[in-house]
Predict the structure.
Amino acid sequence: MGYWGYLIVGRSERPLAETDALRAVRDGLTVRERRDDGWQVWEYPSGDGDVGSMNTLALETDAPALFGYVMDSRCVVLEAAAPESGAWTTCLAREAMAGYLGAGQGDGGPEDEGEGEDGDEGGGGLTLDDYFLEPGDAAGRAVDWAAEAGHRVNAGPLLDVLTSEPDPLAENLFFRFLDRLGVLPL
């Protein structure tokens, strides 16, 4: 069994665990990294529960924030927010995420749940794109997020991470994504 839990990223002069936005999970938070420029990564190991809203954290710290909810080290739900550019949600390791959600990938292929080989039956099930931004849109939102964090990044390397599969752990994809955002270089 892999890791289940949240990795929370934000920038503040004070510890993120002291924010009102994370008050509900404060006692379960552990710092993984705190940098001189204010960027921090905190961990909240949990197979259930909710750490709160990244919108609230971004507004409180007046800086972009994001979390990754790691599911069994196989995939990651990403929720990001910034004071100006707003909130967005996507995922890493889309194939594994589709399996957890019982959702098709949304490309009309025969692997989509409920569809015949020609892809026209449309079994009425939800696709991954019903839950999360597709990789191209998420890469564009991530570029805006990074700009608000003071980093100029290109969508291509972000898209590469958003379309990759775990190698072997989904947590590795999460930290590679942070690297591509310019937040926490590997």
